[in-house]
Design brief:
Number of strands: 14
CATH superfamily of the largest domain: NAD(P)-binding Rossmann-like Domain
Largest sheet: 7 strands, parallel
CATH architecture of the largest domain: 3-Layer(aba) Sandwich
Order of helices and strands: EHEEHEHHEHEEHEEEHEEHEEHH
Shape: globular
Number of helices: 10
Distance between the termini: 40 Å
Strand content: 15-25%
Structural class: alpha/beta
Number of domains: 2
Helix content: 25-40%
Radius of gyration: 19 Å
Mean pLDDT: 94
CATH topology of the largest domain: Rossmann fold
Low-confidence stretches: none
Length: about 325
């Protein structure tokens, strides 16, 4: 069975590619390398193309016998989506519709979609379950919710089988040390903390210290990227076995504040890691925690690597190895 992984040279996509290959799937990586990196697709077939290029996309499906798609390719920065919503609506929605059209034309009926906890907006209950009201607080979240809606409509009309996996905060690095997180610019907390520890940045910003949380900083549910990758394989197997589509949270049901993450990073790295308090970013909410009950029940999934210390240690090992001579 051949799986096309759109955005497979990116952070979560590359870890999922490795997990799919380990599970015995043939994998084709499609990435325009605007955010992904060629070296993260090492050892896999890499097609450099943009999902907005319908002809190139169609050629990928016509020249290969693809059975399923994992869709990671999107813009992901919340603050940027608030500053430039047109960019996000245009890129994320058009690319997804093009991908779905190519799938329908090729008779491919299975998709695992990289969604987000951002579809929930400001939480009304903690932990958040999949039945929580869907009211995103930023354009990025709205694009994810719109695509989920399209998948539901395509399922009813065309028989598409799709599972939308709503991530909370992906973090950590491949335990084998082959893959890790390297966005440009880097907007995620843990890599920025570790880059500060390595002296690769001269400032670490903590966005907001006046949230209604115990220490005033935002609380997030951090999940190890290897656990996320394993969930994608389980989701694909679920669709293969006839499991209906829908949406599933991927989180741990436990949260840590920004200052708690910095504290663990200080223990792991042995560095002081100074930081500066900055104003809140537009669209940020105080607390995001996932209920993982449905993922366990529907997918048989349990996060086994997602202790905060393991997340930070694997990320630190990978970032440090990249800094060695």
């Amino acid at each position: 069975m051949t799986v096309l992984v759109a955005g497979g040279a990116g952070y979560i996509g590359s870890h999922t590619v490795k997990e799919l290959a380990r599970a015995g799937y043939e994998v084709v990586v499609l990435d325009n390398l605007s955010g992904g990196r060629r070296e993260l697709a090492t050892g896999r077939e890499l097609v450099v193309a943009d999902l907005r290029d319908r002809e190139a996309l169609g050629q990928v499906f016509r020249s290969r016998k693809i059975s399923a798609v994992c869709h990671f390719a999107s813009l992901i920065q919340v603050a940027e989506s608030c500053a430039d919503p047109r960019k996000y609506y245009t890129h994320n929605l058009v690319s997804s519709l093009n991908l779905l059209d190519a799938m329908l034309e090729a008779g491919v009926d299975k998709m695992i979609f990289s969604s987000s906890a951002a579809v929930y907006g400001v939480p009304r209950e903690i932990p958040i379950t999949e039945t929580h009201p869907l009211l995103p607080a930023n354009p990025y979240g709205w694009t994810k919710l719109m695509i989920e809606t399209v998948l539901e409509d395509y399922g009813r009309a065309y028989g598409l089988k799709a599972l939308s996996l709503r991530y909370f905060n992906a973090a950590g690095a491949d335990p084998d040390g082959e893959l890790g997180e390297c966005h440009d610019p880097e907007s995620h907390l843990i890599p920025n903390i570790l880059l500060r520890a390595l002296g690769k940045t001269d400032r670490l910003g903590v966005f907001g210290a006046d949230f209604p949380t115990p220490d005033g900083t935002a609380v997030r549910d951090y999940i190890h990227v290897a656990d996320l990758a394993a969930a994608h394989v389980l989701a694909l197997k679920a669709l293969e076995s006839g499991q209906p589509g829908g949406a599933v949270n991927l989180g741990t049901n436990r949260g840590f504040s920004v200052l708690e993450v910095i504290s663990v990073a200080r223990e792991v790295t042995g560095h002081e890691i100074p930081y500066q308090i900055l104003p809140r970013r537009p669209g940020d909410v105080a607390v995001l925690l996932a209920s993982k009950e449905k993922a366990g029940r529907v997918l048989g999934w349990e996060p086994v690597r997602s202790s905060l210390r393991t997340i930070v240690e694997t990320a630190w090992n990978w970032h440090r190895s990249r800094s060695l001579p």
